[in-house]
Amino acid sequence: MSSVDVGSLARTRVQHPEAIAEAAVRRVRREELVGESGRLMIVAADHPARGSLGVGGAPLAMANRGDLLERLCLALSRPGVDGVLASADVLDDLLLLGALDGKVVMGSMNRGGLAGAAFELDDRFTGYRPEDIERLGFDAGKLLLRVDYDDPGSLRTLHSAARVVDAMAERRLPVFVEPFLTARDGAGPPRNDLGAEAVTRSIAIASGLAGTSAYTWLKVPVTENPDDMARVMETSTLPAVLLGGDTGGDQEAAYEKWRGALQLPTVQGLVVGRALLYPPDGDVAGAVDTAVGLL
Predict the structure, then answer these.
(1) How far is CA 78 from the centre of its chain?
(2) What is the structure's pLDDT at 3?
(3) The overall pTM is greater than 0.85
(4) Residue 251 has what pLDDT?
(5) Comparing C-alpha atoms, which of 83, 200, 86 is closest to residue 142?
């Protein structure tokens, strides 16, 4: 059973909903996005808001909120972990639990492309707005940018993303853009192309969004062939972090891919979720500590 008291969180939401905003005001902020280490280690937990609850062969692994919060609190308590990326419901819970003091808090902005939906590639901004992130005193935002060359709707996604990057820059707030070239194979789910050419093009597109790139970071995957990463990352001078994703149970292979890419000059750190929160051996602290060690 989770050590997080879900009933207490629910009672607070019923009786004192204003406690969330009050906790945001009290939160101790860190002075810089990137701390003394010069690296950034962020734990991601924004998957549930897109209906993406599976890890490995367990389709609802992330559905138990108390268990997820317990894993997040443990991860955030480990040395070298800088902060968390999540949707409003998760960050509100973490605020009430007092788990965000001194941490980088990154709000997930577009969760409208629900996993498995016919409109999955319509990544509308259903999460945090720039004004929300500013009002709550959070440190950054993140948006997903999947572009399908065969889907005219991708132009709307690009346009919306560009205007959000503008709005974040006006507030001098960093925004992490996670770009993919994506395609549908018949009636199957969208597939992100992790080939070197596709990742190169996605980085070029994301880097050119909006009227300034001054506050834009990239959140990029390691290519199918990790040896291609050095050439791919030459596409932009924007600072970048590596994303994790579901490792498919091969944790060591994931660590090895990250280790090599972290040596590249524009790569500043890691933003990893399921691979660290739900490792195959169940040792969250061990998985997090290993990832921190790669930095």
Answers:
(1) 18
(2) 85
(3) yes
(4) 81
(5) 86
